């Protein structure tokens, strides 16, 4: 696709186009290597981001009070418009939800394997140089010594109130799980800043215009969806159902307005 776009003069700057251009200028990176690099980057970004978004939607069907609290924050900051990236610093509760989604079920629960470069010890056990280490990200995110009631989905664990003020902000007392779920050291996910902002912005947009509700049966009774996840290197929720209902006519108008603007810019997607 990139090669075709390059020939047609329509290629956007990208990692693939950069390496292809390097090869034209005397580089010798095998094309298969370029393909593998692009494939790894795409796969790592897409599935882990989907894990967070799907996990967020699943939990919103189960916790209406959390959803209402987040929407109240959004309505104060973004009164009659959709949230923008610049609003992030003023939306600490949305940030807390994003943090709790990552802690509740890390997208890569066993992280990425590392190999010891020298002998080490851990809890009295000798680990020789060359040992393969698999970090238990799930265990770290559910450590009762760090997170009270770790099996409870509770974004408020990351919030604090400033004295007698009604102002709330992100707490500094609980460890930010994103320090763990994106890996460690030299092999930490290089796309962390992009992934964090993308997940945050997606959550904010959805909460601003939609109520996320569980499905209902023939009698109109809500059907609680199970907290069931598939196993694997990347762990996503198993298929579940939910309903997206515009919060109001004004919210529906915001969606239509945005679609109209995208269509005018030629960005419309069916």
From TrEMBL:
Record GO terms (molecular function): heme binding; iron ion binding; monooxygenase activity; oxidoreductase activity, acting on paired donors, with incorporation or reduction of molecular oxygen
Coiled-coil regions listed in the entry: none
UniProt-annotated binding residues for heme: 189
InterPro entries: Cyt_P450, Cyt_P450_CS, Cyt_P450_E_grp-I, Cyt_P450_sf, Cytochrome_P450_fung
Highest taxon above the source species: Eukaryota
Cofactor: heme
UniProt-listed Pfam families: p450
Keywords, sorted A to Z: Heme, Iron, Metal-binding, Monooxygenase, Oxidoreductase
Keyword Iron included in the entry's annotation: yes
SUPFAM superfamilies: Cytochrome P450
Pathway assigned in UniProt: Secondary metabolite biosynthesis
Family note: Belongs to the cytochrome P450 family.
Protein name according to UniProt: Cytochrome P450
Species, as recorded: Collybiopsis confluens
């Amino acid at each position: 696709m990139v090669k075709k776009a390059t020939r047609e003069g329509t290629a956007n700057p990208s990692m693939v186009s950069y390496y292809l251009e390097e090869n034209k200028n005397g580089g010798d990176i095998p094309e298969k290597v370029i393909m593998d690099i692009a494939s790894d980057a795409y796969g790592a970004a897409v599935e882990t981001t989907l894990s967070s978004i799907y996990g967020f939607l699943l939990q919103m069907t189960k916790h209406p009070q959390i959803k209402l609290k987040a929407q109240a924050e959004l309505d104060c900051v973004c009164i009659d418009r959709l949230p923008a990236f610049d609003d992030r610093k003023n939306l600490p509760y949305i940030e807390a939800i994003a943090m709790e989604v990552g802690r509740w079920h890390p997208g890569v629960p066993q992280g990425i394997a590392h190999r010891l470069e020298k002998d080490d010890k851990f809890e009295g056990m000798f680990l020789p140089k060359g040992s393969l280490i698999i970090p238990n990200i799930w265990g770290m995110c559910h450590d009762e010594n760090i997170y009270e009631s770790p099996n409870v989905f509770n974004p408020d664990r990351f919030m604090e109130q400033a004295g007698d003020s009604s102002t709330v902000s992100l707490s500094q007392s609980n460890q930010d799980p994103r320090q763990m779920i994106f890996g460690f050291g030299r092999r930490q996910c290089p796309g962390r800043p992009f992934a964090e902002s993308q997940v945050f912005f997606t959550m904010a947009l959805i909460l601003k215009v939609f109520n996320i509700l569980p499905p209902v049966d023939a009698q109109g009774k809500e059907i609680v969806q199970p907290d069931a996840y598939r196993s694997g290197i990347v762990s996503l929720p198993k298929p579940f159902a939910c309903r997206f209902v515009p919060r109001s006519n004004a919210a529906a108008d915001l969606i239509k307005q945005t679609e109209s603007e995208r269509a005018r810019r030629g960005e419309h997607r069916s």
